Structures are given as C-alpha cells and as structure tokens.
C-alpha cells in the first residue's frame, strides 16, 4: 500500500445549507481520502451527509442554497474547493464522474440514450459524430447491454431499471475517469439485479485502474466491494478503517450497533439488537458527540465535548472511549485525519 | 398439531387494465395471477419477490383495498371478496394493514389522537373518554408517550411514524395484519426497532401477520413460512428455515444467493441471473421464469409448470415433476 | 391509434351535442329576436308572422329537434340579419381570428419562455422578482384599458401604427400585443414554476455531472421537459383566444370571430350564434386533438407505449 | 383563467423540521412575510384595499353619487377634488373609495361560490370517478368552448344587469377552474396511502371525503383563490366594457373605467385612476398569492 | 302634407356638385379617398330589406331613392320627377328620363315596380313589409310612368317612398339571384360598389356617369370601428375623415386638433323620458306625471350633460316636424312638483322609482339617466337607474316589462302620424303611455286627407298629450360630426352620409 498517491483528499469539509429555518450543517467537518485504484465505502444513515459530501466534491451543490464554508477538497493534487464553474465542468464527466441512486429518474425522459451519452464526449473530446457513436456502442457493450446499437436510439422509459443503471455506469465511464463516485448505485434495484450490477462494477474496476467512492447504507455491499470504509454519522466521520477491521473490530459504538442490528447476526424471531432513538436532524445537533443521545456507553463528557477523530492502530474513530489509546498512526490514517 | 387456518386465499387474480399511451391498445397487467395460499392463526407468513411481482397487490386485494378480478378470500368463515360494502367495512376491524411509507400513510392534517381514535370511533367501540385512554395506552406500547397525543405527524421521525402506523392498525386488536414492507423505508438502525416492535406485539396480542418484504434478511428473521412470488405467481412456499436452507425453485435459489454477504471474508457461490425481470405486460410463455432460468428445459418454454407439493414445501417447477 | 381516434371523436361529438343543446335553450332565455329586426312601428301581425317564419311559435322541443337534425347536416340556417348562411359567415372569420390568435400566442411564448427560464434559474434574485412583478402586471391590466393606451401611444401620439382594422401585418401588432400581455404573464409564471421543478430533477444533475454547460442545460435539457406541461396551457389559452378575444377585437376593430359572435348575440341573430358556438367548440376539440399529438411528439413516454 | 399554474400546489406532505419550541403558525408566516419583499408589498396593498373597502363610506370626502353639473370634468387637485371629477361632476376619489367594496364583494363572493361549487363537483368527479367524472368533465369541456359573453348576456337577460349578474356570470365561468384543480388533487389524494389506510380502517366513504380529503384540499384551494380574486376583479371591468356591469350610479372600478374610456383623450383622469386601482389591487393579490403558494408548498419549504 | 312637395321641382335642391372641372382645381394634398368611420356594418347590400339605419346610410350611396328630403325635411324629387294623387287610392309618379344603372340597365317604371314588389313579396321577408302592406298593386303605365294602387287611403305613402324605398337594378338582381346581389349591388347612385369586407370596410368608387354629374370625391371607404375611442383615435391619427356621434365632452378635443372640425345639426330624432302607464305604479296618476315634468330641469340637462348640443322640446313633436305646433312648457318648478305629488297623496320622500336606460344608444344616455335621477333626488324621489343592453331594453318595452320610466329615442320623426300613431296608441309600447280618449282622437285623425283638417286634429292631439303629461319631452337630438378640416360636409337632419354632396377643400 506504500506509495499510492491520493486521488481525492477531503479535509475538514463543511457544507452548509441556508434555509428559511436557519443554517443546516449537512456536512460538518469531514475528512476523507481516496487513493488511486482503491474502493472506499462511505456508509451511514439517511441524512448523515453522504450525498452532500459527494456533491461537494463534484461541485454540484444546489446553488445558492448550499455552500462549502470550510475545509478543502483536493483532486489529483489540485485544490478544487472553490474552482470556478467553467473549470469544474471540464473535470466533471471527464476526470471524475458520478452514478446516482435512482436510475429511474437520473436519465432525462425526453432524450434518447444516445443523445444523453454523447454529452460528456462532446464536452471533453473532439471526436466526430461517428466516432462518438462507435465509442458509445462499445461502452454499452462493455457493461453488458445487448443490442447496444439500437438502444442508443431508444428512450429511458423503454429500458428496465437494471438496464438504466448500466447506462448510467457507462455514461460515467465514457471518458475513463480517475475517480468514480457511486451514490447508492444499487439501492433502488432488485436483489438479483443488484447482484448483477455489483458484479459488473467489480469487473470494471479491475479492468480500469480507477478509484471509486461507493456510497451506501448497506453493510453487505460494503463487505462485498470495498477496500476501506468510512462511517459517517450526523455530518461527521465517526470511524474509518480497512474493511475487515470494520467488520471484525468495530470500535465506534455506532458502527458496533449497526453491525449488531443486522438480522443475520441475531437469533431468528428473537429480539434484534437495536440502537435506541433516532437519527438526529442536522439542524438539531447540539454540542458534544452527535451520537451521544443514542449511545449506550455515553459518558458525561460525551454530552458536552465533541470527540476528536482518534487514530488507533489500523483505524481511526471519533469517540471519547478511545481518547487515551492514541497510538502512532499508520500512514493512511494520518491522511484520513 | 396444525393450528387453524385464519385466511385462505384461493385462485386470486388481479389484472390491471393499462393504457399508458393514447395511441396504444389497452394492455393487461396480470399483477396477481392465480395465487393460492393459507395463513394460520398466530403465524407470520412472508411474501417475497422482486419489485413488481405482485406482493402489494396481493396484500391489498386481501383487504379489498383493490377489488380482485377473481378468486376467493376466506377469512373467519366468510368470503371477503364477496361481502357487501357495509359488512366489509365492519369486518375491517379484524383485518388491518401497515403501510410501507411512514411519510405518506398518516394524514398530515390530523393529530395523533385523532388518527388513533378514528378506528375506534368508526367501529363504534368504547366511549369517547375510553378511546382517548386506549390511544394513550397503545401509544405507550409502541414506545411513544401521551406527550405526543396532540402532535401532528410531521413532528415525528420516520421510525416514530411507522410506530404510529402500527399503533393505528393494532388499536382495533385485529386478528390479521398485512404489513406491506413496513421497514424498507426506514433507516438501518431504526429498522431493527420496528421489527422488534412487530415481534413484541405479535406475542402480546396473538397477531397473525402477512409480512411483505424484499429484504430477505428481515424475512428470514421474522417469518414462519414464506411464499416466493415471481411475475404474479407463487413459485415456491415453505417453512422459512427450510426455504432458506434448501431452496427448490431455481429462482429462489438465485434470489437467495444474490443476498449480499455479511462479512468481507464470506464467500458465496453466486448464481447471477442473466437479463432482467420481464415486463408483466408481456410475460413469457410457459414458465414465466424460463428466459432467466439456469436450469431451463425444453418443456419450460411451452408449458406452465404444475404446482408440486413436496410435503409442506410447494414449488411450481418442471424440475420436480 | 384508431381506438384513440374513435374515442376522441366520440367525446367531441358528445361535447358538441351538449354545447349546442345548452346554447339552444339558454339563448331562448335571452329574449325574442323579432323586436330587433323589424322596424319599431311594425304591427303585431308582422311580428307574429316573423316569429312563425322563424318557427318560434312551435313548441320548444319541436324547434329543438328540427334544429338538431339540421345542425347534424351542417345546416344552421341563415343569419336573420344578413340572410347569409350562418355557418359560412362564421367560417369567413376564421382567417382573421387565427391570425390574431396565433400571432399573439407566438409573441407571448417568445417573450414568456425566456423570461420564465431566467427567473427560475435566478430564483429569488432581483431579476426573478422584477420578472414576476412585470408579468403579474401584464395579467392585472384590463385588456381594453391596455388596448386604448397602446392606441393612444403608438397610433395617435407616435403615429407609428394604425389604430385598428384588419388586413396587413402592421394592423396585427397592437391587438396581438394587447392579447399577448395577458398570456405572457401566465406563460412566464408557468414556465418559471415548471422550470423550477425540472431543475430539481435528478436528470438535470446527471447532465451537470456530464459536464454540460449551464446554458445548454437550460435551453435544451430542461426546456424540453418544461414544454410538455406548457403545451396543455397553450391549448387552454388558444381556446380562449379564439372565441374570447371579443374586447380586443372591438377595441381594434378586428373582424374576428369573437366580435361577430358578440354582435350576433346583441342582435339576437340566433343562427349565427349557434354556428359560432358550434365552430368554436369544434375548433377547440381539434386543438385538443392536435395538442395530444404534439404531446405525444415531445413526450416519448406516450409515443411508444 | 389561470388554473394550470396552480396544480403545482399539489403537495406531498413532507415533514417540517421539528423545532424545539413550537411557535404559532401565524408568527412563522409573518416572519417569512417580512422577509419577502414582493409578498410583503402584496400584503400591504391588500391590507389598504380591505380597509378602504370596509371603512370607505366614512373616509370618502364626498357623496359618490351626487352629481354637481357645474363642476364636471375638473382635473385632479382642483377645487378640493383630489382626483378630479367625472362627467357628471362627481368626485372621483370618493367614487373610487366606494367602488372598493364593490370590487371586493365581487372578488370574494365569486371565489366563495365558484370555489364551493367547483370543489364539490371536483371532489365528486375525482373520488367517485366513473359516470360522475365523465359527466362533470364533459360539462367542463362544454363550458370551455362556450363564449363567456354569451353567458353574461343570457344571465343579464334573465335576471337583469347589476352586481348579482356579474357575480353569477363569474361563478358560472369560474367553477370549472376549481373543479379541474380539485379533481386532479383528489385523484392524487385518493391513491395516497393515508387514504387507503382510512379505507383499511373501515372509515365510511363520506367521512373519508369530508374528514380526510377535503382538509387536504385547503392549501391548493386557498392558493388558487388568492390568485382568482384578481382575475375576477379585472373581469368586472371587462363585463362593464361590454355593457353589463354594475348599475350606475353605483360606483365600481370596472364601470368607472368603462364609463371613462370615452374620455381617454379629453379627461385622462377618468380612466386612469380606476385603472390604477384595479392594477394595483390585482398586482397586490397576485404577489401575495405567489408568496402564499411558495410558503404553502412544502416542496419549496426550506430552500 | 303629402302634396306639398308638389309637382314642380325638376332639379334636386341639394347642392349641385360642379363636376369634372372641380377635380383639376383641387389642391394636390387632397386625399385620394374619403374614409368615413362608422360604428357598425351594413347587414346586407340589398336595398329595401333591412330597416337598420346603419345599412341604409351606406347603401344610399349606391342606390338612389325616388324622393328625398331637403335640409328642412321637405320632399324633393330624385328619380321621380313628379307625383300626384289621382284618387285617395291611386298615386302616379313620373320618372326621370335617361337614367341608367351602373351596369347599363335603363331605369324605368319596371324597375320601380320590381322594387316595390320586392318589399311586398313575403318570400323576400323584407323587414319593411308591414309599412307597405296597404299597397295593393304597382302598375306600369309606360316606361316613365308608374301608378301605386293602395287598398285603403295611405296618406303617408310619400314618406314611405322617401324614407324606405331605394331602387335596385331589376335585371341584375334577378340574374345573379338575391344571394349574390346581397354582396354585389347595382344601383343608379353616385357610387359604384367596389369591395366589401364584412365588419371591416366597404369600398366604393365614383360613378362617373352619374345622372347628376360625376361625384367630386372619387373613392369612399366606410371603415367599421365599433369603439368610440378607437374612432376618435383614428380621426386624430388622420386615418378617417369623418365620423358621427361625437360624445359631447370630446367636442373640444376634436376642435383643438390640427385638422378636425365639428359640424352640428339638429337631427329629426327625438329623445324622451317615457312615463309608463302600462305598469301598475304611481305614474298611472296624471298628477304624478305632471309633477315629474315639473321636477326635471331639461334646460340644465341639456346644458350640463349635453353641453348644449340638442334642442329642447316641450311636446311630442320637435320643431323640424312638419306638423309641429307650439305647446305649453312645464318648465322647472320643483315646488309645484311637490305640491302635485302631495295632492296625489304621495310623499316625495318615500317615492321610489326605477329608470331604465339603454347603454350607449343615444348621446350620453346613461349619463342623462343618472342626471335625471340626481334631479329627482332633489325633491326626495329615489330613483334606481338600470342600464340595459339595447336588445334587452327593446324587448322589455315590447313585452311591457318596463317599470316606472325609461329613456328612448324616436326617429326619423318628420311627420305627426309616424310619431304619434306609433307611440301613443294601445298597440304601440314605445311611449309607455296609453289613454282611451287619446287613442280615439288618434284613430279619428289618421284617415283625414284634408291637410288643414288633418293639421288641426294633430295640433289638438299635441296639446292633449302635453296636458296629459304623456311623457317628459327631452330634446331633439343634436348630431355631432367630426369632420376633417379640408372636407366640405353639411350634416343632414336625417343622419345620412351622402358622399355625393361632399367635396374636398376648405
Ligand atoms: N437541498 C437541500 N436543502 C436543505 N437541506 C438539505 C438539502 N439537501 C440535503 N440537505 C440536508 O443535508 C443533510 C444531508 O443530506 P444527504 O443527502 O447528504 O444525506 P445522505 O446521507 O445522502 O442520505 P440518503 O441516504 O438519504 O441519501 C440532510 O439532513 C438534509 O436535510
Ligand atoms: N394501480 C395500478 N394500475 C396498473 N398497474 C398496477 C397498479 N398497481 C400495480 N400495478 C402493476 O402491477 C404489478 C404488481 O404490482 P405490485 O405493486 O403488487 O408489486 P410489488 O410486488 O408490491 O412491487 P414492489 O416491491 O415494487 O412494491 C406491477 O407490474 C405494477 O406495475
Ligand atoms: Mg443520499
Ligand atoms: Mg409493493
């Protein structure tokens, strides 16, 4: 793992929304590193800021409601935190691209697949019309779409969900990006189709030396796909580690609770281990640890002071429980702090 | 020692007339096509299958939220499918539903008290004061408190709303509850709370559930028997443990193998199905699964598979004839 | 397709039938036409005879049956005032009516859609608020007031344009503008709100993620989706423009259908009124049919299913 | 009339964030109103107009109907006549103030009755579907291809000209807007899970309609009405132009405008001031209605 | 006065245009075509069919009448050169020689017969027919002589001929058929038909072979502009040169414009306030009617509402009426009005009356109504004004649905019979007044043939009607015309636009 270079480095990212009810701190100090060629899983519950983090990276935050108010984002060594739209556009769909959760709504219903897929090629390359078409067909075939030549001239609603997600993937892969952000790419799909798509993404990743940030709330997907995992809770990273470490030795009480509540880990028909309470809204996060109100091990301190991200051997964890155990950080952990 | 059957569904059919475009002829979606099963008192019967296979339609047809085209639904000695409006309305006291979307299933303009007392009121149960008492009792049972009685749904989180939805269904102390994906809209950490609640209520009130879900992990945890649906048909049905250990139908086998692993070191022999779920508008001939079936035979293309009973394990597949 | 056409035709027939029936009975309530045509000193016998000649002396249901039987054959009788074929009279007005309707429609779309798009894109900026205020203003001006002011300004003071009358393109400008003022307001607001919806859609995010520049997103990717609901609104407005532009037609002496209809009503020239309502209902139905086709054209989901 | 713009108020309930202390709804709205310049402007205009409408008779300096022939057609700011006098020497300012209530009555009565009829028919069509739906929607179609002036004329012939004629004509024309909006609202609502949930509970049909569907129609109806009022106030002017307006000498903005139209070249103030009054009011109502729509549309909340 | 117009004149009394030479003398800036703004279009181009004056005014430039009126309303010969009564049932007309229709057809006795027969033929459904019903037969004596035989004495036949009858070309009409002729008229008039776009414009060109000489103005367009302000705008913008019915308050605006002037003429049309005795109300009492006559100050109305444009009337007939006689003027005397009301047992403070008025039919009609209401309010009477659309107004009158009072106009009113018979008999609803004795007097007066006796009878009737306070006479309508400065135009009391009489030049 030694000399890999980070492709994406997010440092202390803070993205806030302004709304009629005040400021929503959707992302409140996130650190995240993705190295070339690796797959990082970003897990966490709904509303914890996963999508906002990825949109911040892509420069796709809804303007003017949302803005990056702190921290930096480096992409391939270049600071893109406040890159002007024009230059950002040159990166998007080209060096970094994104797949979205909802294949059903992520394609424009009134344009053909071909018209939409041609866009990144038109924006970022100088290929001729015929070359563009050839390239698209080739790409579609590589994601296992039959009749690629015809499908190009069809409309999204003529395709099934799985097919559309394949189209989305090939749309993202067209310019061979260095980084692919996949925001819950399979959540909306059926189990059998999900298996197909995950398989496909694995294959693609192996073929192309590409880094991937995989956003999901499904630990099973993480187990299957990722090298490293970052767990988010309430707009912050609470734990990050190698995938095996997370499953074998989760340190943060939230991660532990999450793993314990998977039905398979419990006796059939028995009481599931549950995390009490519910996810806080980003606008009602008080001081102290965001997880404290639901944490069974919470101490007095947790309610008043926000814990730091503690570097432990092979993982880092934002919890006061481990405040004393700090050890020399591994290389990648240092990056992730 | 078989318990008595509470619900018997026989040859249920529900076809939707579909007219999507203005210029296309009418089409028929066979959402539920000749489904029969029995649910016994006190058990949890699971219905699984992929999106669009007709799980919800089955659930709704049982409660007559949608009128079935054909078939019988025997509940408590009466054929529900034939009951006149007013008698059906009264029977609803005994069969209730929990909906998937906790955000859409509560009237945003009503307080929790109104929502919870309405079922009692429309069935003429108790006096107004007692109803309030009942409501507050049930609220405690589902883990909320009196404090919430005068709040509106939008003041609750998804998990809390789903609890209210469940409370609303349970307050009438029905015999049967059809739960249509009651946890799939919830956060992972909340799901287990609600599942626990369902299990607890079942024990407490001797409820019978029809539990509809596509999450096989949850289904395995909570159900006693499972029916697997594919394109409007019931393709396999067995005791839960048995089904998960020894799936017979090739589709069930693929479905189970597709469930994500639970640990990075797990290895699983994946049966990756080729192709997509066919459109129910135009289901394949013969066995509807044959275009994706890894074990497809000649006969599968032309002939509908018979239903084979392998001793409390029913499967509709030519392989077992 | 055939199915659709049959069903649609059936609907149109029903609507036409109901409309004619309603007009037939309603119009009988509006008074006796005889007084308006005969000289004031005409004796009662002539009135009676005139009524008889028009068939007004017979029981209402007999008149109705006869009217319907003839109407089915396209015979609405002759105008009481001009003695010309009533339907033909109304048909003669179609060119002028269409000219005005389509010009003002085109004009308003041309103005409204860019404004609507920009307002949506720059939501809550000064441009948006000014745009909203301006379009609302357009909707708040009574049309004859606006018309007269335009005449005063452009025809009397500046003498750039004629005050009214039919014929050439220059005659069209002022009435079309007056009519457009109202539609511009509606279209712009509608475009804005639809655009706001569309801009929130996932596929717009997809386009952005592909690196498509903003102008192109607005003018191509979002616009086409926005157009679909606008078409319905346009159809609705076109119906109003065809039969209901009376005031503008009067102010600008435009020989359109609305004015003819109003005159005929005031003159109690029943055959022309009937023919007019029939034609408007018919055109309205045709427009709706065309809109459906158009809808199918821009909306592939309908086209293919 | 504008209906299609309004269906967007079709809302799916999304939660408003839970606030620690609940603040009364009207205060939230007031706070948001103060923040929106256009909404506030609209509100203030409406406020002034309503005050004038209610207290006009006490505020007007002159009897609005007293003709004083010697003082006819005085320009504004002469002889104690703020806005001048009209062709019969009546004080325009006083007439304008008195006319306010007429315009308000027309706007509000029409909205009330058209809203009521339209809502009932819309609910029936949308909830019961089938024949009721087909018949009501065909009537709507017929109505759409029916010239408005025909309606006005016939009503005029049957019951005579005047305020009630205007209101009845406008109600006749206006209910379809409501019927269409409400119908599509109901069509969407009846598929909502909370309605299904009522059915599943065994709530009788009429109770579902009255207690569950209708309350959820209030928001779109309020928004629609706020915008329709302006349309109706303007329509009064058009009807007056066609000669079926409010009867003289009673002042109404529309009939002042149409009586004044012949004076556009000789006495501009006759047509200008009522015109400005209508435009300002319509503007105010529209701005306020727009604001209301934004506020009541939870989709847009918090953005 | 039927015979008075007499047998003598051979040339029309109308100003004689100078013919061809005039054209060359005209200044170069003279517009090529005269555009007349007009509020409504003709119903048809057929003559003798539609009684509406908007039709008549336009087609009178295409067709000539047999007899016309001069500025004072006296009958003058046009296509008929002389006429006489052979016996009470027979009239003989001598026709002008050498007149040709614009298509070359000769004008002769056959043509006259054709046109009168056209009116009488039920099939043609002429709206004039009832007025001509007493005509039994038209006899062609020779090419230049025609006789009209009536079934009973018909003293007003000459008036009918003057006001109604226009001569269409018989051969043309028969050849092309009525339907075609309705859009392609041929007459003997000063102008030939050119183009007609319904509700937009009617274009005419000069008939250079006109028997009275070629018209001075070569092209005429009637432009239909229904809205007054638009008409005025078009006039101010120079698009039209002439229009009628200028609202009194806009007179100044026209006068002050660069190239406009105002022409005023007393119309034969009279305006009155009907006091309805068909309605069971207080107005059935003569004293109340008289009180209203006292309480309404017509002079003030004329001065302040009409800016003086109109001539006050005191009785049923106006001064231009041939049978006019001076009657008593009630004058303005509110005290007397109150006294009369008291006498009738009515407290004016509790009296509530309704007043119907048409809307825009007569000059300032709704304003006059409001002003009358305002005047009556001075003695405490409360008046509700109701402005009606014209069709409704007429229908309400005809169906006796009017309440206390209504405003109406009547014209052309050149003779006593046409006015009094059509207004004050039981069959006639227009004055709202009916009295048995008056009816008897009218019936007695109608068949009188002797001029002097006839005049006496009608004079008596006028006095009687005033005494009865049958209505509140208002005024003889003043017609106001906006005229381009360089157009010579003398307005006529019969409201007609005869372009032949007009010419360019100061
Ligand atoms: N447009 C927006 N306006 C205001 N707040 C927003 C907006 N978008 C997101 N948020 C807030 O930001 C927080 C983080 O949202 P985000 O979409 O990143 O969550 P997520 O982790 O992706 O959840 P999910 O699993 O549901 O996709 C949410 O709580 C949400 O309330
Ligand atoms: N109201 C309806 N009109 C027409 N077709 C319908 C309707 N409701 C459901 N369908 C169709 O019927 C089939 C079965 O739908 P159903 O909702 O029962 O599936 P499901 O198994 O519950 O799927 P999911 O897991 O997505 O909820 C689907 O193909 C669907 O498209
Ligand atoms: Mg997300
Ligand atoms: Mg479902």
TrEMBL record, chain A:
Residues 10-259 form the ABC transporter domain. The keyword S-adenosyl-L-methionine does not apply. InterPro entries: AAA+_ATPase, ABC_Ni/Peptide_Import, ABC_transporter-like_ATP-bd, ABC_transporter-like_CS, Oligopep_ABC_C, P-loop_NTPase. Its main location: membrane. It comes from the Bacteria. Keywords: ATP-binding, Cell membrane, Membrane, Nucleotide-binding, Transport. It is found in: Cell membrane. Transmembrane segments: none annotated. GO terms for cellular component: plasma membrane. One of its GO terms (molecular function) is ATP binding. Gene3D superfamilies: P-loop containing nucleotide triphosphate hydrolases. GO terms for biological process: peptide transport. It is a peripheral membrane protein. The keyword Nucleotide-binding applies. Belongs to the ABC transporter superfamily. This is ABC transporter ATP-binding protein.
Automatic annotation (TrEMBL), chain B:
The keyword Transport applies. Keywords: ATP-binding, Nucleotide-binding, Transport. It holds the Pfam family ABC_tran. InterPro entries: AAA+_ATPase, ABC_transp_ATP-bind, ABC_transporter-like_ATP-bd, ABC_transporter-like_CS, Oligopep_ABC_C, P-loop_NTPase. Residues 7-256 form the ABC transporter domain. Gene3D superfamilies: P-loop containing nucleotide triphosphate hydrolases (3.40.50.300). It comes from the Bacteria. GO terms for molecular function: ATP binding; ATP hydrolysis activity. GO terms for biological process: peptide transport; transmembrane transport. PANTHER family: D,D-DIPEPTIDE TRANSPORT ATP-BINDING PROTEIN DDPF-RELATED, TRANSPORT ATP-BINDING PROTEIN. Belongs to the ABC transporter superfamily. This is ABC transporter ATP-binding protein. It comes from Brevibacillus parabrevis.
Automatic annotation (TrEMBL), chain C:
PROSITE patterns: ABC_TM1. The keyword Transmembrane helix applies. It is a multi-pass membrane protein. InterPro entries: BPD_transp_1_N, MetI-like, MetI-like_sf. It comes from the Bacteria. The keyword Endoplasmic reticulum does not apply. Keywords: Cell membrane, Membrane, Transmembrane, Transmembrane helix, Transport. The chain crosses the membrane at residues 12-31, 96-117, 129-155, 167-185, 226-252, 272-298. Residues 94-295 form the ABC transmembrane type-1 domain. GO terms for cellular component: plasma membrane. One of its GO terms (biological process) is transmembrane transport. It is found in: Cell membrane. Belongs to the binding-protein-dependent transport system permease family. PANTHER family: DIPEPTIDE TRANSPORT SYSTEM PERMEASE PROTEIN DPPB-RELATED (PTHR43163). This is Glutathione ABC transporter permease. It comes from Brevibacillus parabrevis.
Automatic annotation (TrEMBL), chain D:
The chain crosses the membrane at residues 40-60, 104-128, 140-159, 165-182, 221-246, 266-288. Coiled coil: none annotated. The keyword Methyltransferase does not apply. It comes from the Bacteria. PROSITE patterns: ABC_TM1. Keywords: Cell membrane, Membrane, Transmembrane, Transmembrane helix, Transport. The gene is gsiD_2. Belongs to the binding-protein-dependent transport system permease family. The keyword S-adenosyl-L-methionine does not apply. SUPFAM superfamilies: MetI-like (SSF161098). One of its GO terms (biological process) is transmembrane transport. CDD domains: TM_PBP2. It is a multi-pass membrane protein. Pfam families: BPD_transp_1, OppC_N. Residues 100-289 form the ABC transmembrane type-1 domain. This is Peptide ABC transporter permease. It comes from Brevibacillus parabrevis. It is found in: Cell membrane. InterPro entries: BP-dependent_transpt_permease, MetI-like, MetI-like_sf, OppC_N. GO terms for cellular component: plasma membrane.
